[in-house]
Amino acid sequence: MIVQPQSEVYELTPTQQAMLIYSLYAPRSKAYFEQVCYAYKAALDVHAFAEAWQQVVSRHAILRTSFSWNDSEHLVQIVHPGVDLPFEEQDWRELFGLQQEERLKEFLRDDSERGFDLACPSLLRVAVLQTQDDAYWIVVSNHHIVLDGWSMSVVRNEVSQIYRKLAHDEPVELGPARHFGAYVEWLDQQQTSTEAETFWRHELEGFSLQNDLPIDKNAGKLSNPNETFSEKHVSLSPSLTASIQSCARRHHLTMSAFVQGAWAVLLSRYCGVDDVVFGITVSGRPYEMPGIESMVGLLINTLPVRVELDPQESCLSCLKKVQDRGAGLLEHEHSSLKQIQQWSDVPRNSPLFETLLVFENFAGAGSSFRLDGPIEVLGAHFARTNYPLTLVVDPGNHLRFQLVYHRSRFAEDAIERMLEHLSTILEAMAADMEKPLSSLPLLTEAATHTLLHEWNDNNQKAFTDEPVTSLFERQCKLTPEAVAVSREGTQLTYAQLNERANQLAHYLKQLGVGPETLVGVCVERSIDMVIAVLATLKARGAYVPLDPAYPKNRLAFMLNDSGIQVLLTRGRLSETLPDYNGAIVRFDDDAEVIQACSKENLGEAPQPADLAYVIYTSGSTGNPKGTMIEHHSLTNFTMAAVDAYEVSAADRILQFASLSFDTSVEEIFPALVAGATVVLRTDAMLSSAQDFLQKCGEFGITILDLPTAYWHELTDELAADGLSLPESLRLVILGGEKALPERLASWRQHAGTADRRVRLVNTYGPTETTIVATMFDLSPQDDNKQVTDVPIGRPVNNLTVYVLDRLLRPVPIGIPGELYIGGAGVARGYLHRPDLTAEKFVASPFGSEGGVRLYKTGDLVCYRPDSNLEFLGRIDNQVKIRGFRVELEEIEQAIRAHQDVSDAVVIAEETDAGDKRLLAYVVPARQAQPTISELRELLAEKLPAYMLPSAFLFIETLPLMPNGKIDRKALPRLDQTRPALDENFEAPRSHLEDSVAGIWCELLKVDRVGIHDDFFELGGHSLLGAKLISSLRRNLHVELNLIDIFQSPTIARLAALISQRQTELATEDDLASLLAEIENMSDEEAQQRFAEELAKGGSHAQALKLTLVSTGTTALEILSNTL
Question: What pLDDT does residue 511 have?
Answer without folding.
Answer: 97
